[in-house]
Amino acid sequence: MPPPISDCAARPSTSWPSMHEGRIIVVGSSTGGTDALRIFLSQMPVDAPAILIAQHMPESFVPSFAERLDGLCKLKVKLAEQGEDIRGGTVYLSPGNAHLQIARHGTGYRIQLNDAPPVNFHRPSVEMLFRSAARVLGARAVGVMLTGMGKDGAVAMLEMKQAGAINLAQDEESCVVFGMPRAAIELGAVDEVLTLERIAERAIMRSREY
Predict the structure, then answer these.
(1) Where do the domains of the chain lie, and which CATH numbers do they carry?
(2) pLDDT tens digits for 110-156?
(3) How far apart are the C-alpha atoms of 53 and 175, rounded to whole Å?
(4) Whether 30 is catalytic
(5) Are strands 141-145 and 108-114 parallel, antiparallel or unpaired?
(6) Catalytic site residue 70?
(7) Of the residues 56, 125, 174, 207, which is catalytic?
């Protein structure tokens, strides 16, 4: 079970360096994702690596959702901004009107927002985030596919695995809709299928193996 809200709200004021070592966690979610992300993020420790999330959500709802998550978690949760450095201990939520991607910058990484047309009918698209993780991070990525309708992100998750990433997916029983995890699993893109309650712990464990 996730820790109580009071435990999640305490966040020390730590100055994190730009990410240049270890892995970065990238997450895709859609239908049912708001609750799944709340549980997933509330279980993350304060020393977690950077987490980037592509959640299918109308633009007008995203700022309040980010604010709500920020109040529940040990990590800082914010809307991703163009060109900002990616830092550990921070969760970057995709804006509702742009694709979220990762760009290399020196020895670290930066946020890249892309207003290209929708991919798999979505902007932000999980496919775009995962594909950038495959190309830029390679084995430095941990992919997480949470509940969602359709197949957005499945093909790019396979590209991540082929590039050396570790990929996790939410199991059918704990999903609101199993479409996106199922599509990734059927493609052979997933290393482990886990209950929602176990994914955060496992993602942290795998992120520290690099």
Answers:
(1) 24-207 (3.40.50.180)
(2) 999 999 999 999 999 999 999 999 999 999 999 999 999 999 999 99
(3) 17
(4) yes
(5) unpaired
(6) no
(7) 56
